Amino acid sequence: MKKFxxxxxxxxxxxxDGIYRYLTIKTGVFGREIGFSQQSTSRKLNELYSQGLIxxxxxxxxxxVKITKKGIDYLMDEIKKMGLIGEKxxxxxxxxxxxxxxxxxxxxxxxxxxxxQFMSFFGERPYPGTLNxxxxxxMGEIISFLKSxxxxxxxxxxxxxxxxxxxxxxxxxxxxxPCFIIFxxxxxxxNVVEIVSSENLRNKFSLKDGDRVKLEVFPYD
Amino acid sequence: MKKFxxxxxxxxxxxxDGIYRYLTIKTGVFGREIGFSQQSTSRKLNELYSQGLIxxxxxxxxxxVKITKKGIDYLMDEIKKMGLIGEKxxxxxxxxxxxxxxxxxxxxxxxxxxxxQFMSFFGERPYPGTLNxxxxxxMGEIISFLKSxxxxxxxxxxxxxxxxxxxxxxxxxxxxxPCFIIFxxxxxxxNVVEIVSSENLRNKFSLKDGDRVKLEVFPYD
DNA sequence: ATTACTAGCCGTCGAGTAT
DNA sequence: TATACTCGACGGCTAGTAA
Lengths: 221, 221
Hints:
2 copies of one chain form a homodimer. Chain A has 221 residues and is α+β, with helices and mostly antiparallel strands. Chain A is built from 8 helices and 12 strands. Chain A folds into 2 domains: 3-85, Winged helix-like DNA-binding domain superfamily/Winged helix DNA-binding domain (Arc Repressor Mutant, subunit A), CATH 1.10.10.10; 91-218, Beta Barrel (Elongation Factor Tu (Ef-tu), domain 3), CATH 2.40.30.30. In chain A, strands 4-5-11-10-9-12 form a 6-stranded antiparallel barrel. The mean pLDDT of chain A is 91. Chain A binds a DNA duplex (19 and 19 nucleotides) through helix 3.
């Protein structure tokens, strides 16, 4: 049996609480639930047993199984790996340096039309200005992912004859400090991103143009 | 392709950072790394592609792959499931009620031979007494697991003609408050467990005999 | 009733190879 | 040089059935 198949079997047992106590099952019913025939289930459980990954006792009708210490360790290894992948998915790391940019974001983030929506999401008032970060390398793929897969979006509006478009927003941290990264929904890729926070980040961290910063973006938070 | 096999493939791509950016691979090399032939790897990647789980571009030599949004969601679901199983493994929940017990633990936990070892593990001095909890149901399987799979053990010693045996110890919480659960290594199962803490838990929580408590034990912490 | 063996079938694997 | 198709071989799957 392939490793990932054993992990699958163990995780199905674990989900049914067969970790510290015996779980009573019937190969037919359990098999149907996990997508195998009665016979295959029987064979696979015996295989797990002979590998020392589960304890198994045959009862008059049915059997009881329990994951062994070895099985738990085996499963735990895989859970840790999956946890690491989860981290990679949840936390996108971007590095770059502070730049002055064109100050467009500042004009945007002082519009009440955006501020009201921002506050309804996060309960805090954004500092009316953005910090611009010049990205190190070609980050087009990541930026386009962040533009199309978002949780927060500020709807556009018209104000004084001018149209303000939709804005995509992600939670992030700048050198560990919570903030937000924003993108205009329309517009092509630029290697500069804008950061919004309730504070003036440039002053708070005494940032000068060219200073290195590490951004972590959390598209699922 | 079975679901768990697809998850395996996706996780191998994810580990190599094929999440937000394209990952350049060769079916032969990648296949060898993940345990399949060049041909099977090619076939499986095409299958993932036709299911919309990855993007794939054939290059002059090799190909580049990237997990799609659908693929990330698919993988995330599984990661969450694994996380839940991890929680089940890490945190064993035991319920019961406060009882007076026989006061044996109090005598034990005032021996300097144990206290010194306890302090070297946890840096705090245990209150010289134990709180006894009468377990609700038959918990023999769980208790025997905790007795044989432990991280902390206080070695026994001789003192004044009396022998003190080895003691197994686990981190735990009582109604959310950090504490420790202890078992004599020798001796058969009893449905009473003893709790040690740096404070007098009975006073701190105004516990009377019969009061319901929820214990969470963390065998991996 | 339910587990698990046997036998035959079916699908997956990978060597060979076209592109 | 690579990917990916074809096809023969092998292994795993399940129906039938013994225990």
